Amino acid sequence: MPSTYPAAHERHEPLPGADSGQRTAPLIELRAATKRFPKTGGGIHTAIQNVNLNVAPGEFVAVVGPTGCGKSTTLSLISGLQPASDGETYVRGELVTGIPKRVGYMFQSDATLPWQTVLDNVASGPRYQGMGRSEARDKARVWVDRVGLAKFEKYYPHQLSGGMRKRVSLAQTLVNEPEIMLMDEPFSALDVQTRQLMQTELLRLWSGTGAAIVFVTHDLEEAIALADRVVVMTASPATIKAEFTVTLPRPRDVEEVRLTPEFLAIYRQVWNSLREEVDQARAAASLAG
Amino acid sequence: MTAPSTAPSPTAQKPLAFELSREREAQLLAGARKSVRVTTGKIWALRVLIIALWLGSWEATATYLIDPFFYSKPSLIWDRLVQWFSTGTQFGSVWENLGFTVLEAVLGFVIGTVAGIVLGVLLGRSRFLAEVFSPFIKAANAVPRIVLAALFILWFGFDISSKVATVVVLVFFAVFFNAFTGAREVDGNVVNNARILGASKAKILTSIVLPSATTWILSSLHTAFGFALIGAIVGEYAGAKKGMGMLIANAQGTFDAAGIYAGMIIVTIVALLAEMLITTAENKLLKWRPSEAKTQAQGI
User: Fold this and answer.
1) What segment(s) does the record annotate as region Disordered (chain A) (predicted)?
2) CA dist., res. A180 & res. A209, Å (int)
3) Which one of A142-146, A232-236, B296-300 scores highest in mean pLDDT?
4) 3-state secondary structure (DSSP) of residue A227
5) Given pLDDT bands bounded at 50, 70 and 90, which one contains residue A289?
């Protein structure tokens, strides 16, 4: 039942930049990707198994699944932070062996540097890539401004609220002009109102960039409100169970769109698929606990 | 929730009734400042009282009950201090002797700190090297290193180099273990984030690992400088031509209890001054930290 992409199977040689014309070449491609970890008590834990996933340039894909199923592992394979145990990951048709160029990653927990100001945190990407301090700061200032933190550029992260720190991370990622943005439950630690605000901000900032986003979440509403496509993963070991195209028009108002009948129809459809997995994950958790 | 309560409430538009008037605010702030002043005054009064009681009882017992030849007393120690600073010691000016001790302590402190940071960060970042070297480091740390002072005199003679060596072996381990822990405890998330943003291995070390370990390293410097002074004094005690440790050893040899106390007091003051310097440096380097001291939890 895992969704198959005929195009992905026909094409053996990666064709960077070459567009067949019919459909755009996938920007990200996971082929039968599997990741195993040694368990602390001995034995092997399979986080994801046989995952096939294609993401087109500029596409917003949300990955949903039961908590702790291995959604984040998928992102770390794409980012090159971890190698796949089996199968391959391709970005722009090239096998991922290190961190691919123009990839951004927003982590679930804070990854800002506490000893640097908001501005210097955002400037760190260009600085790492060899840009001079003042030039990097000028570039960063534009993004600090765009995420609405212009007045806070001299603040340290601990002086900001959780939502503002997420804005810093967002600016830090966007300043590198990524073509791929990997987001690992970035807003899960925020309260509901701040979360919806950040979702709106994300869509606003994303709309101009043309970047593809892979957004991992366990919040189905969030997934449907944001994405072009929702991918449902099974309970552990995770594999792709089903995919749903979200046809809601853009630009979307993330708060209003949830109330439309179209949204509810999609929600019902995806939830039917996701529910079994959530139940299974809960059963496994209660057995273990 | 009942339906009527969700209707916009008319009271929401009312101006705030609890706003403080300017005079009342000034009054409250003045009251808060005054209570702080009173508390500080009480704290200092008690401190002075404790010192007076301590020195007074010592002076009294040493005058009437015990032999001041062995136990000395505050007035004798004061006289000795005055004598050292006005006419000098048998071994030249007290400033010169103090200068030697401080020079040895500072040189050894700098060398030991740099070595501790370099090796600590290196082993903290490499699990393999840490695994290889951990038994050796644990064993070296268990050695009563202060005894090495005697060996260093054999190796390097009575010059300052033997004292500097003693200071280095004392300071190194204090800094090493903190630098090691600091480098190891770096948040993996932050490192991954930097890698994604394009940081090279060298950049990760200089812009992430070292700054995160700084908190750990700085907190070790307080104890490390204390060790540095101890190392210098013990080194001089074991054998030297100049220095506070030598003055103390000489005072012991001549049954001059007041001289021992006078030496102790001078070194204590140096240690306190150094402590203040380190704290200032720490506050400057760690100004990004949330400060606990500034929070006014009490309320007015």
Assistant:
1) 1-23
2) 10
3) A142-146
4) coil
5) low
A176·B211 Cβ contact <8 A: no
CA distance A63 to A232: 6
Which parts of chain B have pLDDT scores under 50? 1-12, 293-298, 300
User: Looking at the DSSP assignment, which residues form a beta bridge with residue A55?
Assistant: A28
A242 contact B CB<8A: no
ipTM of the complex: 0.84
To the nearest 10 degrees (0 to 180), the angle between helices B210-238 and B244-253 is: 30
Which tokens in the block code for residue A82? 């971890």
* pLDDT score for B294: 47
Q: Of the ranges A63-72, A80-89, B8-17, which is most confident?
A: A80-89
Three-class SS state of A50: strand
- Looking at residue B209, the DSSP 8-state letter turns out to be I
Helices B257-285 and B210-238, packing angle to 10 deg: 170
* Contact assignment for A128 to B196 by CB distance below 8 Å: no
Greatest pairwise CA separation for chain B in angstroms: 95
Q: Six-digit token pair at B78?
A: 């004061």
CB B180, CB B124: distance < 8 Å: yes
CB under 8 Å to B130, separation ≥6 — which residues? Answer: B123, B124, B180, B184
Domain borders along chain B are: 28-66, 74-285
Closest CA of chain A from B190, distance in Å: 5
Per DSSP bridges, beta strands A229-233 and A212-217 are unpaired
Closest by Cβ to A128, choosing from B189, B192, B199: B199
- Mutating which of B197, B204, B209, B210 best tests the A interface, going by the most A Cβ atoms within 10 A? B197
Residue A39, pLDDT score: 86
How many inter-chain contacts (A to B, CB under 8 Å) are there?
56
3-state class of A110 per DSSP? Answer: coil
Element of type H or E holding A245: strand A240-245
pTM: 0.79
Report how far residue A50's alpha carbon sits from residue A32's, in angstroms, rounded to the nearest whole number: 4
**pLDDT tens string A102-112:** 999 999 888 89
Facing residue for A125 by CB, picked from B187, B197, B286:
B197
A172 lies within 8 A of chain B by CB: yes
Mean pLDDT for chain A overall: 87
Q: Which domains does chain A have, with CATH numbers?
A: 1-14+23-100+179-186+208-279 (3.40.50.300), 103-177 (no CATH)
What is the tens place of the pLDDT at every residue in A152-208? 999 999 999 999 999 999 999 999 999 999 999 999 889 999 999 999 999 999 998
Q: How far apart are CA A25 and CA A79, in angstroms?
A: 19
Q: Give the helix/strand (H/E) hosting B251.
A: helix B244-253
Longest distance between any two alpha carbons in chain A, whole Å? 56
Check: CB of residue A32 under 8 Å from CB of residue A53.
no
CB B233 within 8 A of CB B245: yes
B206 in A contact zone (CB under 8 Å): no
CATH class of B74-285: mainly alpha
Is the Cβ pair A156, B194 closer than 8 Å? no
Q: Nearest by CB to A124, which of B189, B197, B286? A: B197
* Residue B203 near chain A (CB below 8 Å): yes
Searching chain A, which residue's CA lies closest to the CA of residue B284?
Answer: A115
